[in-house]
Amino acid sequence: MVERKKQMSRDRVSRLINWGHWFAFFNGILAMIVGCRYIGSVGYPETWYGWIYLGVSTIGQFSFLAFIAYLICLFPLTFILPYSKILRGIAAVIATLSLCILLYDTIVYADYGMHLSPFAFDLAWADLNALLHGTSYIVTPLAIIAIELTAANFLWKRIDKIQKLNLGNKVITLVGVCFISSHLIHIWADAADVTEITRLDEIYPLSYPATARSFMESHGIDGSSQDENHNTSVLNYPEQPLTCQADTKPNVLMITIDSLRADMVDNRNMPFLSQYTEINQSFTQHFSGGNQFRTGMFSLLYGLQGSYGDARIFNSTSPVLTRTFQQAGYQLGLFIPETNLKLRSSQAMFNDFSPVVANESNGSADADLQTVANFNQWHSVQDKPWFALLNLKAPENFDTPVGFLGVETIKADPALTPAQKVLFNQYRQSLYFIDQQLKAILAQVSSDTLVIITGVNGKIFTSNTDEAYRNLSPQSVKVPLVIHWPKAASASKVKYRTSHYGLVPTLMTHILGCTNHTTDYSAGRSLLQPSKETWIYIGDSTIFAIYQQAEVTVIDRHGKYRIYDENYQHRLNKKMSAPELIEVMREGRRFYNH
What we know:
Blueprint: H1 2-42, H2 48-80, H3 84-112, H4 118-126, H5 128-131, H6 136-157, H7 159-164, H8 168-192, H9 195-198, H10 212-218, E1 252-257, H11 271-278, E2 281-283, E3 286-287, H12 293-302, H13 320-327, E4 331-337, H14 338-343, E5 354-358, H15 364-380, E6 386-392, H16 418-443, E7 450-455, H17 465-470, H18 474-477, E8 481-484, E9 492-494, E10 498-499, H19 503-510, E11 536-539, E12 543-547, E13 551-556, E14 561-565, E15 571-572, H20 578-587
Parallel strand pairs: 1-6, 1-7, 2-9, 3-10, 4-5, 4-6
Antiparallel strand pairs: 2-8, 7-8, 11-12, 12-13, 13-14, 14-15
């Protein structure tokens, strides 16, 4: 009798386990249906092999997630509560909660481009009203639990018939083949740089497709040379075709200086630029789009957040600014040190220019002397409207030419370390050298030329590249901006906050005669009027800062954040301001196809 009860108990548990597997498979199918919403966020494949990969990865991933959920939540309960009615009810509730979370994740992913995490959840919770519309958030869970209860009962009543069909091994084989195939296909796509497939890397939650690099490393092969950049979602840049007609075509000279701090431009360090600032339009609260050459120059020429800099489309798509100058009949000249040409964040950034590269074998200051000479030679033979980008680099490396007689050493801030005090005064020497080059350049340029002088990024006094990369303080990102408008009395000080993102809309609107709304091609607004945005995005997709009026929020790629006061001197013990951050995340997704 006892043995018979044990056997009946084992049979009941076995039947519940069989039922649980089929219930998990059913929910895997429901998860696939919900998961189709992810595809619309990144765009559908355009090739047959893209569809094959999407199909096998969808089946493999969601079946895997459903089985893991069953294994963690339901399988132990089968032994603790081996009663079908109770277990079916619990299973329906767990499945409903899981599908609702998945559905919510699709909404968050479509709006912010990221899957649920503690950081994303805080962000989405603050924006709940905008994410959830109408009464669907009430009706949908009720509909799902009704479907789950119906399916649970249906499968339980027919589990014996289903078992007799011997479909279990076939389903397991199908799911297993899809799961393994998706990883093998991705390894091939990663090695062959098939962006139609690799752009889907992060489309599904908890998806970590194998790469050629990981495959080679697991087999003892060095895969360090493989490109880690897989941010290949389809972009609409610009969002709408541009309509531009330039009435007049003044020559345009843009001088960009690496590592030029706004607070160091004064009569002692840079007397010429300081005087030039007084007689032209100067922007006293101007910020770069990044603290490095890559992000600073990207924000200056593209007018887009640095988070877009990893998108592969920009390896073949030049800035709309330079394309429009070219279409307007301008000659485009680029005068740049050789290392900076290699540092650009996107390969197509300078495609529209005719580059003249300065050799840096004798240092950055010597390269800057070459750059100035190259520009003067090029400028002297131009007979058409021209747009020249002249990049100077000496302050980045605290460099001056051999034998240069600079300014006298002064007492540095006592808060600086001894090493920083040395760098402080050496930095001043390089600024004084650059100031002399600016004077020499502008002496050769006529007054009817539009001249723009700005810093690519700021500078902190350190030789540690990692420290410089992670520092997003005002010293690293606040730069001067001076504009000389031809044939206009332009002596004025702009005291509202501006950024590099505003330069592209300013030139496109006021020089190239573009009538499009600036949001069609840029994240910025014209420099000539205050921006409605209360924040500025500074950095790239790995680490970035949100500059607001009274605080600075620094966020890394894992969602960890720190909040500082406006001077970056004290860390504040407070939660992030969600409304501004929501706007930032949406701006960072705005040009992607949905």
